[in-house]
Amino acid sequence: MSPPPERPETGSPPFSLTQLADIIESRRSADPDRSYVARLLARGEDAILKKIGEEATETVMAAKDADNRRIVAETADLWFHTLVMLAHYGLRPEDVIAELARREGVSGLEEKARRSGGE
Predict the structure, then answer these.
(1) b/e map of 42-78 (b: 16 or more CB within 10 Å)?
(2) Which whole-number Å values give the CA distances from 112 to 25, 58, 82, 100, 107, in the listed order?
(3) Looking at the predicted structure, is the pLDDT value of residue 4 above 80?
């Protein structure tokens, strides 16, 4: 198996969602006074979900403004907080990737109808 391609800006291997999920998981047992992730996980579901809602709104606002720099930054925040949510529920990005792989080759309209009972 060949090594991952390098990121042009740093020459280092690409950073993956799996790596970030591992970092988030490692912070679970950290001191909440010293770790944002530990603090957010300790605050529980409502705090985590509220943060995702805030980041999703900020991502949409950046997109509406067509501000590419902010779109990237806000999407990074959204993805990060989504990974915290997955960790809270004992899930991993690989679970989401597996679901996306399962849907490959299935019409989006067909998949939506299957999930919503034909609506």
Answers:
(1) eeeeeebeebbeebbebbeebeeeeeeeebeebbebb
(2) 32, 26, 22, 13, 9
(3) no
Measured in whole angstroms, how far is the alpha carbon of residue 47 from the centre of its chain? 16
Nearest partner of 73 among 85, 87, 55, judged by Cα: 55
pLDDT in tens, 11-31: 666 689 999 999 999 999 999
pTM over 0.85: no
For residue 109 the two structure tokens come to 């309209």
Site of tokens 């792989």: 101
Number of C-beta neighbours around residue 35 at 10 A:
17
Contact 81, 57 (CB under 8 A): no
CB atoms near residue 17 (< 10 Å) = 17
